[in-house]
Amino acid sequence: MLFIICVPYSVPLLQVAGEETEALLIQVKQEQDAADIAKDQCRADEKDTNRIAAEAISIKNDAQKDLDEAMPAFQSAVKALRGLSKDDINIVKSYVNPPEYVQKTLEAVCILLGEKPTWPEGKKLLSRMTFFSDLENFDKDNIDKSKIKKLQPYIKDPNFTPEHIANISAAAKSLCMWCVAMNKYDKVAKTVEPKRQALKGAEEELSNAQSLLKEKQAQLREVEQKVADLNSKLQATLKKRDDLELSKKMTVVRLERADRCVSHCYHCLLTYHSLGPLLYLG
Fold it and tell me: Can you tell me the distance from the alpha carbon of 72 to that of 52, in angstroms, rounded to the nearest whole number?
């Protein structure tokens, strides 16, 4: 009598699963190491980017602080100009031989607006429809150096002040305020210009750093996704290996049971054959 016991082909599969698991463990570790390096680099780049941003904000605030010192004078001058009446202007225009500081005020305005500094030219400016908007929207950030140089004799005159000229003409007072404000703003703008250039450089550096950081963060996300995918694959492989391991153990148990069963049957047959003749005689 022949007994055939079928053994599942689990041992080679278990070996393959073990090899796959070991290979995946190595790959996951390599990718995780790469992700850790990328993460450290991103943190360093982010710290550097924040430093550059802080420097840019500091430069910007410093420059704005300087400009803020000059802006009140300009804003006060604009407010005074807006408060002038038509009669205030007509009084100035009516002068044939104007008071000295009314004439000087108009000359200073002519210089800043790029006109010949004479009384006739000053009166023409007062008649211009866009005169007040020209003053209000004057490009104070880019005043020509030659205009500032020509303006200095007026500025240095101790009587060329809004307070002094207010006793002569309300319109001239407001125009004097504007001239003095433009001179002050130009001085501040000159000190601010290097800061503006530094800010421009810092902003360019910040833009480059942000672009680089964004690129590194994208690379990090890609690596982390790869690690996550490998971990998922690893978990599936580990489950497969564990299932095969369990199957192997169950197979061993079944084989042991089968072996005991076969042994028992064999002994029964031997007993039967040895007792058979006696049973037959009986």
Answer: 31
pTM of the entire predicted model: 0.55
Longest dimension (CA), the chain: 167
* Alpha-carbon span 141 to 152, nearest angstrom: 18
Q: How far apart are CA 282 and CA 278, in angstroms?
A: 6
Domain range holding 101? 68-195
In a domain, 112, yes or no: yes
pLDDT tens-digit map of 206-251: 888 888 888 878 887 887 887 788 778 778 777 777 776 777 677 6
Find the CATH number of the domain harbouring 75: 1.20.920.60
Contacts of 20 (CB under 8 A, 6+ apart): 237, 241
| DSSP letter (8 states) at residue 183 | H
Within a domain: residue 149? yes
